[in-house]
Amino acid sequence: MKYLFFLISISISAQIKGVVKDSISGEPIPFVNIWVENETIGTTSEADGTFFLEASKQKSIVISVLGYERKTLKGSEISEVFLKPTTYDLREIVILNKKQSKQIEIGDIKNAIFQSFDNGPKIEAKFFPYQASYSKTKFIKEVTIFTDSRIDDATIKLHFYSVDENGFPGEELLTKDYIVTLKKGVIKHRFNISQFDLVFPEKGMFVAYEKLLIESNKTGTKYQPYVLYNYVERDFFYTYAYGKWSKQSGENSEKISVNEPSINLILSN
To answer: Which H or E element spans position 2?
Structure first.
């Protein structure tokens, strides 16, 4: 029995080590999202593409990052992981008439009470519904996020999603990762994204943050930054866990009280 228990303990506490590389160039891919399928265990690859994951090698591991095809492998198959770059259809060139003489901020919560959490899921999304009035300020000029960081130069990844046919976060609106650097302290950060020429979708959109579990963000056993949240009532809330998006909603169309990441958008004409 002791021998059997010892084998089980080894299986549970096994560490999966690997490196993620571009299948064409062979270059390492940083900040890759790595999850144990159907579990909340996950990590992020370092700047040199390496990662360590505390999980059994018999588990299925989901490996994904924007700009590359998603891959699922058994932990025992992982050492060097090669991801194939995604092929994007070339878009027609469109001349956009952006005046930026008018702007509005959306998503702001009046009388908000901010809270910070460290033990939540790694990716959480805030939904921004479309309103007809946005046709006058349809370009996404800036994204803001309120964080509490204990270190300088903490990094975080921001995502912009369309809405799929089921109302879930769908395709990413950018073709490359958008990673931002944050200053130390409790700060509302503003990032200008007007260079991406994003137009607010008429079905609405999701904006999400992804916490990067990398050594440069680590303080003790915690990872920086802490994203601040607003306690609000919503019809639904989406969280990325178990390697997929899940929806939290009330029964009989009732609203639910949730902690929502304090992310806003600034639209312009």
So the answer is: helix 2-12
Residue 54 shares a structural domain with residue 113: no
Secondary structure (DSSP) of 97-151: ----S-EEEES--TT--EEE-SSS-SEEEEEE---GGGGGS-EEEEEEEEEEESS
**pLDDT tens for each residue of 157-182:** 999 999 999 999 999 999 889 999 99
Residues 178/63/239/48 CA torsion (nearest 10 deg):
-40
List residues bridging with 159 in a β-sheet.
208
Structure tokens belonging to residue 40: 């909340």
Residue whose token pair is 């991406």:
196
97: in domain: no
| pTM for the predicted model, two decimal places | 0.85
- Chain centroid offset of residue 179 CA: 10
In a domain, 153, yes or no: yes
Contacts of residues 83-88 at CB distance under 8 Å and 24 or more positions apart, as own/partner, are 83/20, 83/21, 83/22, 83/23, 83/29, 83/32, 84/23, 84/24, 85/22, 85/23, 85/24, 86/175, 88/175
**Integer Cα distance of 160 and 252 in angstroms:** 29
Distance CA 76, CA 191 (A): 41
Rounded to the nearest 5°, which phi and psi values hold at 175?
-100, -5
Q: Are residues 238 and 138 in the same domain?
A: yes
Per-residue pLDDT tens digits for 204-215: 999 999 999 999
Which domain, by its residues, includes 23?
2-83
d(CA 245, CA 224) in angstroms, rounded, equals 23
